[in-house]
Amino acid sequence: MSIRRRASGALAMAFVALLAVTATVPAYAVNLDSAVPAVQNAARAERAQSLKAVAGATITVQRDGYTSAAAPKPKAVVPSQTASTITGISRGWVRPELGRISSPFGARPNAPVSGVSSFHKGADIAAVCGRPVYAAAAGTVVEAGYKGSYGNWILIDHGNGIQTGYAHSSALFVGIGQHVSAGSRIALVGATGSATGCHVHFETRIGGTPVNPVPFMSARGVRIG
Prior knowledge:
Blueprint: H1 2-28, H2 32-47, H3 83-87, E1 101-103, E2 106-107, E3 119-120, E4 123-126, E5 132-134, E6 139-146, E7 152-159, E8 162-169, E9 171-172, E10 179-180, E11 185-188, E12 199-206, E13 209-211, H4 213-218
Antiparallel strand pairs: 1-4, 2-3, 4-12, 5-11, 6-7, 6-10, 7-8, 8-12, 9-11, 12-13
């Protein structure tokens, strides 16, 4: 009788414990499918920052030190000085020298040097010995060398029957058949031949006949003397 009661008590206690476990476990069980999104949402909420706008507040934007400026204006290009700019080129013609006219074209009352014609076939341009002599225009050298009273002489053919000559030079830099451009240095001022001082005897010819260099050059936009 006592053994049955003990067995019945033990069985009753076991049944109560079983009911307790059955009732308790569902209350503490974790549903993984719903728990993962909840954790992620919580993490996002933790990282999120709130921004409160204050009325009347001024926000200063930093530009990390960058500045802007207008592009500089290009500098004007200044051409280098050449023989043509020195002598005053115009319409392809230049002054052979910058000095003054010491003896003009035409008849002279007396020949300055014995054996020289009283009619002057060119214009003498006074200049310091050793200064450069420039070609008056582009052309081909047809004469170059020593020529009696002319001394060191150069004759340039410019085409269409026009020629220019340069006499009394101390040195020549061109030879026969050489093509020269307007303003190129062809000789140095001197006093060779029949000359009383340093100068350039400048001749202008049309069809082989000497003409007055002053109006000839003036018609081509160049003033000499």
